[in-house]
Amino acid sequence: MGLFLGWIFNNNEHFIKFANGLGATFINLISMIVLPIVISSLTVGIANLGDIKKLGTIGLKTLIYFEILSTIAFILGILVANITRIGYMIDLSHLKSVDISQYIHAAKANKDQGIGSLLLSIVPTNIFSALSKGAMLPIIFFCVLFGLGTAAIGEKGKIVLDFLNAIAAIMFKITNWVMRFAPFGVAGLIGATVAELGITTLKPLFIFILLAYLVMLIFIFGVLGITSRIFGLRITDQIKAVKEELILAFSTASSEVTLPGLIEKTQKLGVTKTISAFVIPTGYTFNLDGSAIYQGLAAIFMAQAYHLHLTFLQQLTLIITLMITSKGMAGIPGASFIVLMTSASAIGIPVSGLALIAGIDRLVDMGRTVVNVIGNVTATLVIGKLENGFSQKKHDAYIAGIENA
């Protein structure tokens, strides 16, 4: 319905405004319940764990896994762009100019972001300020300490755990209500995108869009598929289990809207609550595989469009720059596009060239969000296996239930 309405009301400002309003309302509803779910689930999970050494082990393995997979995603995107050389195949000069002022403003506001500032920002000076900004890493840090503190006081902390368990149950119930509005929100977001961009604007970059989706599919069924097999899992089972969340991620281009569902589904897939509540929110900052693929692919694509020949050392510099800036800017709206802006100068790409692919960013964003989501599901199951926090029996029973439904 969104595609049809977008085609009918092409360039209709009133429709675009109304449709964007529907989509924004849905996103806001989901955003409203994300933090209460993360806080309650993570705090209870850490408190039940109770062992700071065990938590340190989970955290270390999680970050190592995230970094390995993200690096593979960056390299895959860059490698495919070098092999296909699609930047030389497309005449980008025919594209109409696209306004990227919002990205420039965001990039300037976050130009000093990097690993150092990221580490400093993990410890919140005011937890309520972090909550109001939706800053996930400081919130996770506080919840970990709060959970450990609750476990340390023993029986006195039971009343807090009961309260937080009740909050989690309430929030999941509200999530079910909110999801009934999802079709309207999705139709609005898709309709506004099609009406605003139009079909003809996208034709010159159709090859880039197709290649981006092809690389993402290779990553899902190749890299994530092999990773799953190594740990005795199947990527197809994971896709079946979270298909509703993947459709939602694709249509809204937002990972955040899937967070409540992923925490619940990964527990049904056999992972303990502690691991699920820790890995998934952390993955929203450190494990954005789809975004990594896009950034590597798009950077080389733009360089080729400008007929810039990049040496091996320049491309290695690009990978390192992307790895650092992508961690520093995760969670910012349009983060993948902003990372490209901050990294382009490292290999001599004019920032103005980013306007050439800004028009299709939303369409590619839908695909990379799906990869981000399924990547975090795989990560949660793998960490569960590594930490003996996984029930194969529960996993198999849930998958069998889906297949027999």
TrEMBL record:
It is found in: Cell membrane. Its main location: membrane. It comes from the Bacteria. The keyword Transmembrane applies. The chain crosses the membrane at residues 26-50, 62-83, 135-154, 181-199, 205-226, 305-325, 337-358. The keyword Membrane applies. GO terms for biological process: dicarboxylic acid transport. GO terms for molecular function: symporter activity. Gene3D superfamilies: Sodium:dicarboxylate symporter. Keywords: Cell membrane, Membrane, Symport, Transmembrane, Transmembrane helix, Transport. Pfam families: SDF (PF00375). One of its GO terms (cellular component) is plasma membrane. It is a multi-pass membrane protein. This is DAACS family dicarboxylate amino acid sodium (Na+) or proton (H+) symporter. It comes from Ligilactobacillus araffinosus DSM 20653.
